[in-house]
Each structure stands twice: as C-alpha cells, then as structure tokens.
Design brief:
Chains A, B: Belongs to the FAD-binding oxidoreductase/transferase type 4 family. Chains A, B: Keywords: FAD, Flavoprotein. Chains A, B: GO terms for molecular function: catalytic activity; FAD binding. Two copies of one chain form a homodimer. Chain A is of the alpha+beta class. The first copy, chain A, has four domains: about 90 residues, Uridine Diphospho-n-acetylenolpyruvylglucosamine Reductase, domain 2, CATH 3.30.43.10; about 120 residues, Uridine Diphospho-n-acetylenolpyruvylglucosamine Reductase, domain 3, CATH 3.30.465; about 120 residues, Alpha-Beta Plaits (2-Layer Sandwich), CATH 3.30.70; about 80 residues, Alpha-Beta Plaits, CATH 3.30.70.2740. Helix content of chain A is about 35%, strand content about 20%. Chain A has a seven-stranded antiparallel beta sheet with strand order 15-12-14-13-17-18-16, sandwiched between helices. A five-stranded antiparallel beta sheet of chain A has the order 5-6-10-8-9. In chain A, strands 1-2-4-3 form a four-stranded mixed beta sheet, with helices on one face. In chain A, a hairpin with a 4-residue loop joins β17 and β18. In chain A, α8 crosses α10 and α12 packs antiparallel against α13. Chain A is globular, with a radius of gyration of 23 Å. The two termini of chain A are about 25 Å apart. In chain A, about 55% of the residues are buried. At the A-B interface, β9, α7, β11, α8 and α10 of A face β9, α7, β11, α8 and α10 of B.
Amino acid sequence: MLNPADATFAQRLAERLPPDTIGPAEPRHLEDPRGRARTPQAVLARPRSVAEVATILSACASARVGLVPFGGGTGLVLGQIVPDGPAPLILSLERMNNLRGIWPEEGLMIVEAGMTLAAAQEAAQAAGRLFPLSLASEGTARIGGVLATNAGGVNVLRYGNARELCLGIEAVMADGSVLHGLKRLRKDNTGYDLKDLLIGSEGTLGIITAAVLRLWPIPAGRATALVQVPSPEAALSLLSLAQDHTGGNVTSFELISGQGLHFLHEVMPDLRQPFDPIPEWSALVELGLPRGVDPASTMETILQAGAERALLSDGVIAQSESQAQALWTMRESIPLANRRIGAIVSHDIAVPLGEIGNFVREATRAVGQIGPFRVNCFGHLGDGNLHFNVFPPAGNSAQTYRAQADEIQRRVHDLVDRYGGSISAEHGIGRAKRAELERYGDPTKLAAMRAIKAVLDPVGILNPGAVIGPAWPDKILS
Amino acid sequence: MLNPADATFAQRLAERLPPDTIGPAEPRHLEDPRGRARTPQAVLARPRSVAEVATILSACASARVGLVPFGGGTGLVLGQIVPDGPAPLILSLERMNNLRGIWPEEGLMIVEAGMTLAAAQEAAQAAGRLFPLSLASEGTARIGGVLATNAGGVNVLRYGNARELCLGIEAVMADGSVLHGLKRLRKDNTGYDLKDLLIGSEGTLGIITAAVLRLWPIPAGRATALVQVPSPEAALSLLSLAQDHTGGNVTSFELISGQGLHFLHEVMPDLRQPFDPIPEWSALVELGLPRGVDPASTMETILQAGAERALLSDGVIAQSESQAQALWTMRESIPLANRRIGAIVSHDIAVPLGEIGNFVREATRAVGQIGPFRVNCFGHLGDGNLHFNVFPPAGNSAQTYRAQADEIQRRVHDLVDRYGGSISAEHGIGRAKRAELERYGDPTKLAAMRAIKAVLDPVGILNPGAVIGPAWPDKILS
C-alpha cells in the first residue's frame, strides 16, 4: 500500500534538492484535457537534471509514495491523472528541455524529455533534417510523454511511430538507478531491448529523462492533395496505388469523414472547405519525394490512375506550401471541432487495413442501433488507425447520453476484437482503458506484464494505477 | 540446477507427441559454423505446431531440462551451441515453415518461425511485395532465429532490422503458455511491448513460433554502384549526399576494405573484380527509387556531385540486373573468403557514424601493436556497423595466434567502448559474448535483464547459459 505525498514528505524531499524544485501542483498538472477527471491533490516536483530525478525516485521508493510522470499533459487516457487513492508526487520534466547535441550527418540528436515535440521538430529543421513525428498537440506534448505513450500521428506510414524514431534512452528506474542508453547507434544487439520496453509503458516501469532521436533527410519535394473517395476501401486501394508508384514514399494518408467536415462547418464556419457539397469520405494524401521528380505531376499521375479505376471522384492538389498548410489545418482542426461538439465516447482503434470498410459500416450500424448518434470516423488510414468517435444528435449535449457511453464502447470494442484489432492504437491505456485491457488483452501477455511490473517496480510507486498492476481504487475508470 | 535431457526424459516426452517428433540430434544441430565449439550431446525435438511446442516447454519446465531453440544454425555467437553442462533438448522449428497468410495490399504476411529467410523473401516477391531483410546466410537462416537475434543485414538503412520488420509474434513462454500476438496491425499500444522484448532475446525469454512480417512495395527502380573512396569519412559524406538527394531512399551502403578484396583475390581468383589495382576503400551503394526517376541517371548525378567534392575517385554503375548481382556477389563473398583465410578473432561492432574513420584507424593501429596481423574491416557503413576481423599474416594459420585472440579483442572492444559504441551490433550475445556483455554493459540494464529473465523463466530452462542469467559452466566462453 502506498502513502500519500504529504507535507512532511514534501518538506523532507525539498531539503535534498535545489530551492524551487518541490512545490504545489498547478491546475494544468491536475486536469484531464477532456475534462473527465482530475487529480484532487498532489505535490509537484520540477527537477533540472537526471541526478535530481534519481533523488526524487529514491525518496518516493523509501517513503512508498506514488509518482506520476508529467510531460505536456496532453494524454487522452488519464495516464497523468490520479482521481483517487493516496496523493501522488507529480514529476514534471518541463525544466529538462535541453538539446544535448545534434549530429545531422549521423541523422540523430539527443534531447531531454521535457522538450516539446514542436521544439524537437524545429531543432531538426534548423540542422537541415526532419524529425518526422507530428501530431495535433505537438506544441504542448513533450518528448518524454511522446515516448512513454509511443505516440503516432500523421507520418507513421513512412517513418514509424515514436518507438521507431528513438534509438536510445536515458531513464531512471524505480530504485533511483539510472539506465544509461544514449548511444549514437543505429544497431546495438547487446541484450534485452529495455528501450522498447520503457517506450509505451506510460511511466509505469521507469522515467525517461532523455532520448536519442532519429532524424531523416527532408524530402526534396512534397505533394499534398485532398481527394473525394467513394468508400474507405477505395481510399485503401488508392493508397496502395500511390505506394507502388512512389516505392513506399507516401508520408501521410488521412481519412476524413463527411461528419468531421460538417462539424468543422458547424463550429468553425470561417474555415474554408474545398468541396461543396461535403463528400461522405475524403482523404488527405501527402508524398515526400526525391530530387529529380516533379511532386505535383507525380501526384497528378497517381490521381489520374486512381480516377481511371474509380478510386476517387474529385481532388485538389495543393499548388503552394500555404495551400498544403491550409489542407493540413483543416485536418488538424477536426479533433478541436470534436471537442467543441462534445463526444459521448471516443475510440482510438486499429483494425487490419483490409477490414476497415467492413468495420466502419458494421460499427456505425451497431452504434445506430443504440441511439440516433452521429459518428465522426477519421484517422490514419494507412496505419489502420481510426478515431471512431460518437456524438449526440444535433442540438443535444453529450451529457444527456452519458449513461449509454459504456454500451456504445462495449459494442465498438467487441467489434474491434472480433476483427482482430486493437482497442488502443496510439493513445495508450492509462487509467481510462485499464478495464478494457483486462477484458480484451491476451492472458499470457497480461501475466507477463504483471510479472515485469512487479519485478521492475516492486513497491509499485511508478504511475500507480496506470496500465497494469494493483489499482488502488477498486473501481476502474473508463 | 538443471537436469540432463536423458533417455528417460526423451522417451516420456516422445509418448506425448506424434511419432518422429523426438529423436537424436544430427551433426548440423551440434556444430558451430565457425568450428569453435560443439554441443556434445542433445535430444532433438522437431514439432509441427505451436501446441506441440507448448507440450515440449511444459515438459522441460517440469523436468527442469534446458531447451535450446534452433533455426538454421547460422548464428555466430554460440547462441545455439551448448559446449558444457547438462545435455539440453534442442528445439528445431524446421517443420514449422508454413506461410499462414499473405495480404499484399495490407503490406504484411504471417509466417512460421521455421521458414527460411530466402523462402520468406520469395513468398513476398510472388505477391508483388518486398520483404527487405537480406543477409549472406539467408538461404539457411530461419525467421525464428532471425527474429530471436534481431538480425540486420544489408537493407537496414532504409527498412530497419528484423525488429522493425516484425509487427507481431506468436510465442511460447517458459511455462508452456502461448502468447497470441499475430494481429495484422501497424499500431497497437495496448500494454508493454513484449514483441520487442522477445525479439533479440535469443530464445532466453520465450520461443517465437510465428510472426507477422512487414512487406514493402518493390522500388520501381534500382541503381547499384561500386565506388572507390579515399576514406571511410569520405564514404560517409557520400552517403549523406545520396540520402539528401533521394530523400532517404538509399537502401544499402556497404563499406569494403582493400584487405577484403585481396582475400577474395587469394581464395576466389575466378571472381572478377572491377578495380585494378585493388583500392584501399570502396563502397557498394544501392538506391531504391520511385517511378518517374531514372535510376542510372540519379546515381550518375550523385556520383558526379561526390566526385566534385573529392568523395570518390572512380566508380562503376551496374548497367543491368546481372551486373548489379555480380557486385552483390562480390560483397557477399567476403564473409566466405574470411572463413577460408581463417580469422584469429572477429568483431561485430558499431560506433557513431561520425567516429568511424577515427575508430578504424585507431583500432587498426592498436591491433598492429600486438602483432603483424591483417585487418579486414567491412560492413554496413550506413548503420555504423562494422565487421572488424583480424587475420594472421599471409601464409600463417589463425591457430598459431590463438593465444593473442583475447588481447586483440580486449583492445578492440575497449576502443569501441571508449567511442560510445556497441560490442555486438547485429550478431547478438549468445554464449560467445557473455563475458563481454558483463564487462561493458550498463549495470542498470544488466540488473533489469537479470530481473526480467528470473521472472519470465524462473527455472532457467530457456537457452540456459546464453545472454544472461546463471551460466552453469563456471568458465564463460569467449
């Protein structure tokens, strides 16, 4: 059983650290971005070095105080929110935001966990390289959180998710020992892959304090287009065609539902939309191409070939960087519009690519049987990753339908499971999906996870109640 | 302490399995490809299904019998060889070699662990896709071994190593329970990354029985060239130039030392070599390009730009598939020539890309201070991965210098460590490098590895003596 991070604990810990390291948490550390829950009480630690992180972990371990790592606070599964149980210490990495070094010819840089994703992208850009991880909250999300949750985003298709863009980590383990793994290497087969075990473990196995990030050459040419497609299946065939044509150089392939564009129209009427009337399905396609090929004409050839096979009915190719940016702004505004409309329940799911069309139709029908809901299904089609979000009928608030949220989620997740999919494609488990993981997870996997958690964090101080291990509130949040 | 796999054990186990599953091991299961050690005695199991593998693991666990997984037997670090201790059961996956399914539009296939790497490449090719993992022993190496050792090879630069080409695994854990992870998904953030923990664990944490492998579009055009470069540094700058020009579409960049070509000349005089006299350094470059670009002229432009910056002095661009093949045959014959010459000691190392030139010069000098040895340094330059192999003076046998092997290795590995490198870039640890891992490994990493091994394989039956955990022979092989 854990003890609360009380005043005595805070004061003793503060004495071992530079002034200003320990203090009270601010509202931004305590509130869920979707407003579903909050941490009622916590002590805040803002260390400046890995040594200070180690001191904090040692203190938590001896006092049996729970510790919640905190990046930008943009996580969507309550991984950073502790609504119940003994008050934790919140460990914010915000002051560890240095670029430790960048080696453009080696294609890598070493950054601290508290650097924002946008700052990491800018550091790479300034050195003539691309750090391709990109997602809507990149201005706020920090590298530590991005790695702890193995974040995805819009360029996974070509460059992989956070895991594949990280070559090594420095981390502090539950006993305060430091894992030194910041080697500037592409290949290292010396023993078990602890880097990938910590990546995606959401702070429950160790605290990532710095990382070696992989950089890519900036593609010489980019082409961006928005196309109307008759169905998700047609979109997939178009993707396959584009991949064949470019030898795998499609960087993004985002599916957009008509519902999402209607939401945009409703809450952001000033945002110009290229198609009128709004099509049921469209896709945002981006290619990253080598020198010697004309991006616009490559895109044109692909769309031409797609049109001949009836894979698309209309399309616009961006003629300038600002036109491309406008298309991306539209895509990236969808989550914001969703938030303003207010979802009853959101699903971050993946299904096999070939099953996407069937799944979307069947899931939409299943939701329709429960009530007259609106479904906004959008996401990273090339990764099989859909955000299948369910909203109240127009003019109603999500609150009215809160009682049906569990039923909707059960139907959708059951279907995901039947299709051999994932109930968390990119957001993680946190505290919001613990019960879902227990329900749908492979029993052998869950047993191995519990065993690993127990041995790497025997007192259970690391992000207690998240992902796996003893959940001290009896009720599990969903 | 483990018990030997004796006749009684073998007979009892045989009774629980179909006829012919249990039998005596053949020489090929017992011998190291480099002839350094052999397994004196073992029982052989050749199961046909994951259920049979589970039965075998359960039996080994209850009888406390060690189990050594066996793929193609091509591992170079004695991971499949047990020279000492109680006789093990050798679990060969050779009969589990089915293609369970292939989905070309989804870019993936599911294969069993006993399929050879070449057969996996062919299955992909037949479906119009590329399975890019490629290495010299691909005709013999099997997917299970390739994953268990996280194999690398010549296309890592563009497509990643075995780990990045695997989307999911089916595996049997030490207690006989089955991990069902064969989902056809690109993204799945439901809990800890057990896939990557098992990949590269060399059969010490679980037995991989099948895998979801990632397929890529076949590049529309390929260009292959062999160039003379003045130094490893120049080669790296040429690589950087080629990456910039192609937007990251360099598929291979192999460094070849003059010594390697001299060895080829010595033991394979009929193999035609393009350069006369043999250059001190050369590089084999391959690009994989989209449609709409002419591969040969792209390569020409790159080599031209390289020549202007004095990054190369001469080069040949393959004018046909068979010329490209001839260049690759030359590259792939180097390990074979090495074996015929007979190395005193081989090093599979990685150093930061920017340090390769300094490292090679310093290491060559250090080896030269020990004796009049010949160094053949070659490898996957783009990955920072070099095979730094040391040979006796011409006319002498490696046997004569066996006593100096340890000293050479110590000097080379000390230097690797000082440069922030890896003492095993792609071959793994096995039993040959256990002592080196203990010496150079990060203490926190080693402690976590021991903890994980102890909890996932409490009896210690899985590949006992490999990588980590109790080594029952007191002496550790090197």
